[in-house]
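Predict both folds.
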Amino acid sequence: MREHLARVHSAELEGIHAKLIEVEVDLNVGLHAFNIVGLADKALNEARERVNSSLKNSGVKPPNRENRKITVNLAPADVKKAGAQYDLAIAIGYLLATHQIKKFETHDKIFMGELALDGRLRPIHGALNIAHMAAERGFQFLFLPKENANEAAVVKKVKVVSVENLLEAIEIIETRRPLVPHTYEPPRPLTSNAPDFADIKGQENAKRALMIAAAGGHNLLMSGPPGVGKSLLAHAMVGILPPMNLDESIEVTKVWSAAGIPVGGLLASRPFRAPHQTATLPAIVGGGSDPKPGEISLAHRGILFLDEFPEFQRHIVESLRAPMEMGAVRVARARGTLSFPARFTLVAAMNPCPCGYYGDQEKDCKCAAFEVIRYQKKISGPIVDRIDLHVSVPRVPIEELRTRSSSAISSKTIIETIAAARALQESRFKNLSISTNAEMNSRQTENLIHLQPAAETFLEKITKTNLSPRSYFRLLKTARTIADLESQESVGAEHVAEAWSYRIREEA
């Protein structure tokens, strides 16, 4: 290594994956200059000012006191670098190049963190993602801001060093302060504020559909007049979803961390995302100039709730087609294609017409017939075809709302039933990379779903309608979930009949 050249390591996020970046700091004779090269954005180019001030305020000679040309190269040069997470690596590289700290082994360490002007370290995005990359590449130590340490410490194969400021990092490097790896501390579980099913009066058919959707990961559409409880039912569904396993928690946490949402550790509860109808395409699907996960990825392994479904822009609704089938979304850019996971359960709610009262028994609809048809046609056939459960949510009489019922089933009881159904699915898919019935492809559906003779006969009758192949397989998967809720090994005619009752059949 040249006398005034130092190399340290940092990382860049590309989607939800981290890429190793080598930070080279070189000093040359000449008038003072501080240049950062390697396809850096504006925030990164401003690092020279943050590094100057943080070094000065940490009691170290800063670059602007040097009458030398300083060049910082971020390699590989063809990868776009964005953000301020390189500040700590640049500062450490500068101190090494100027011999202000003693030489140490840099090949097994990664430095990440944004510097404040007083030398404090501010948190970064994607700490867990970077820790996974570090472990895969064989790095031993990952220096991170204190706020990110617990999240990254989930990865056991790399030692996470929690630092509060630049001076502390220097002291650890020079062994003046002991290097104590951060130990992962599970965050305290959040108390669920989801409504209890026992507190929701009436709507037994909708509750049953929500139970099936939660058990098998099926998409659901609720239709009914305003104020009957569609949003309440959707929020109640969160309370009956089974907890995530470790792999699912890591997947979801990596998505949220890459999106810049503070998590403080592994996420334990399944996500519930409810974007507004005015949300843009990048906000829903993901992307942007610096591509980030969208709402459908933030809902990965959880629920994406779209209220007033027809009011979303048509191109946004149509963009859900591929993610609903593939469980992932691909964002194409000039420099390549990024993939974000998006294995979500769609729960949508809509009014039956523009005024909302078409079919209501107590209030007359003021819409013309063509207005009703035009409104319902806002949801295209291909999207409708991808929704397994269609349920009507009628008005509940006031007398029923005022009546106290002791026979209503609580969310706690429903959770136990769903957990048993999920256990059957886990056993069924133990050698496959799927976890719910809704994730099966057509071949898996044919091989893993066993129909009773009566179910075969019933299927022969309904397949004489204009049932699409996609609808046929989705029908079978829903019937399999209904059978799982009853702990049945094979699918009977009653299970297929119930699944069939939840599908919209314009041809019938």
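Second protein follows, with its predicted structure tokens after the sequence.
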Amino acid sequence: MPGIASAFYGVAVYGFFLATFLYAIAFVGNLPVPRTVDRGPAASLGEALVIDVLLLGLFAVQHSVMARPGFKRWWTRFVPPPVERTTYVLFASLALALLYWQWRPIPEIVWSVANPLGAAILQAVFWLGWALVLFSTFLINHFELFGLRQVWRHLQGLPQGGLHFVTPVLYRMVRHPLYVGWLMVFWFTPVMTLTHLLFAVMTTAYILIAIQLEERDLMKAHPEYAAYRKQVPMLMPRLPRTLEVMPHMEMAAAQRRTQ
């Protein structure tokens, strides 16, 4: 019975995550939804800055702290290990939902691209970024990253683990293709408002900090990662080379790239 409950919990949380992910596309891209990065309740400049910075800070702290090995060791004293990842995804999705709900736009325009071709190129890169984000998760096992594999194996009575980290083409070109996709999503827009710029700057700063935290954990857990790190750039892709090490690493070293 606990396995069935865990499976329902995992599926429900994944559905909630999927809804927040799809809304993120509309939120950042200013698509026709009630609230976006540039559309929402009016507020003074000072109020909007304080609220938006706090919302982004809350998401960053939750995302990073709950992903650290030390927190996981403490957290799994209370949360069963098979649903630890699902619970992490739930809290991340709740933080995103709160951000969508309480975000305050600052409408002043920083830049606006009037040229139709230039605007179309920026929009194309924006959509390419979303495709890269999603594709990257499947390269490293999408269902493990979002907790479904863990609850499914628990339902079947199978041990956790058993996956290996591989380096398919994208991960031979750049260590963090998922983050490259996010940066494309945040920065490539025909109209950059002050609130969109704040969003892009803070999320970029978080990504740079998160990479350092993730890679520090990987270096401790997997000495092989040091050689991979030397051979493959962090965020600026280059043509893949044959890696001398790391044909396989444990999935635990897949960096939880949704952080």
